[in-house]
Amino acid sequence: MIITTGDRPLTEVAARAERLAERLGVPYAPRGNQSMSKLLSRYGDEEALVVLLQGVRLLRPDRPQLQFHPSMGFVRAKRVLKGESDPMLEAAGMVPGDSVLDCTAGLGADALLFAVHGGERSSVTALESSLPLYALLTEGMAHYASGLVEVDAALRRINVVHSNHLDYLRSLPDNSVDIVYFDPMFREPLEDSAGISPLRAYANSDSLSAESVSEAVRAARKAVVLKEKRGSGEFGRLGFAELLRPGTKTSYGVITIDQRS
Ligand SMILES: C[S@@+](CC[C@H](N)C(=O)[O-])C[C@H]1O[C@@H](n2cnc3c(N)ncnc32)[C@H](O)[C@@H]1O
């Protein structure tokens, strides 16, 4: 992956792109007047992260372009800000101030919801193992402008970490985070999930391991939550109780931590 900017970037945007490249240890490619395909072939690479004034996108000639955008996360965040409920937050039993570890950050929509509902006293850490997706997310969370102050503030509060969740979970002390959340790539994709299909090309699609769940249970104080396709065998295989919701194609499964033990 190389990191570049759009045509004729502001100095501040070029500096941001350069800093990000340095932090990630990947080449910074000044854009000049070059087309993206020329730039990629000059660097002998096939993937570019393009830093823009208020956004960021991921490009590969053979794959759909992926832009940082909280999409449904923004719609859900607005509902939560109005005091409406959200099934994920209910499944997690999250109250403002709780700490959350989102083990499968993706485009950060769920992490945004946790940060909006959790408020300023909460802490939300979002882990992403794919380097291009991590780069998209860390830059997007830091600079995306949604038009809503509360949403932008929540995006900026999320601590995005490039890590495989099993390694990260193993490093955590017992009972150190209120909620641990998993939303892995579904074993059988939902055909009409427009939000997730462009992400699939860049994502880690490994199945969730029993060891990750057991480390999550050790680290969690309140609950471990799994999102999967409704009726998925993953709930039973990994020990989650599926919460069925009428008329939905996805479900949340929960392992509630017994706080007396
Ligand atoms: C279905 S997406 C998550 C979508 C996310 N909940 C959202 O709201 O945008 C799953 C993400 O988890 C990442 N992932 C899968 N396995 C992982 C692992 N072991 N550690 C960290 N991230 C992982 C994938 O790369 C992908 O980006």
How would the blueprint of this fold be written?
Elements: E1 2-5, H1 11-24, H2 36-43, E2 48-51, E3 56-59, E4 66-67, H3 71-81, H4 87-92, E5 99-102, H5 109-118, E6 123-128, H6 131-143, H7 149-157, E7 159-162, H8 165-170, E8 177-182, H9 197-200, H10 210-219, E9 220-229, H11 233-238, E10 241-243, E11 250-256
Parallel strand pairs: 1-2, 5-6, 5-8, 6-7, 8-9
Antiparallel strand pairs: 2-3, 3-4, 9-11, 10-11
Helix pairs in contact: 3-5, 5-7
Keywords: Methyltransferase, Transferase
InterPro entries: 16SrRNA_methylTrfase_J (IPR007536), SAM-dependent_MTases_sf (IPR029063)
Protein name: SAM-dependent methyltransferase
Order of helices and strands: EHHEEEHHEHEHHEHEHHEHEE
The shape, in one word, is globular
**pLDDT average, as an integer?**
93
Strand order of the largest sheet: 7-6-5-8-9-11-10
The CATH architecture of the largest domain would be: 3-Layer(aba) Sandwich
Low-confidence sequence ranges? none
Radius of gyration: 19 Å
Portion of residues in helices?
25-40%
Q: Which sheet architecture does the biggest sheet show? A: 7 strands, mixed
For this entry, what is the oligomeric state of its chains?
Answer: single chain
Structural class estimated from helices and strands: alpha/beta
How many individual domains?
Answer: 2
Cofactors, ions and other ligands in the entry: S-adenosylmethionine
Number of helical regions: 11
The CATH topology of the largest domain turns out to be Rossmann fold
Report the β-strand fraction as a percent range. 15-25%
CATH superfamily of the largest domain: Vaccinia Virus protein VP39
Organism: Paenibacillus rhizophilus
Keywords: Methyltransferase, Transferase
Protein name: SAM-dependent methyltransferase
GO molecular function: rRNA (guanine-N2-)-methyltransferase activity
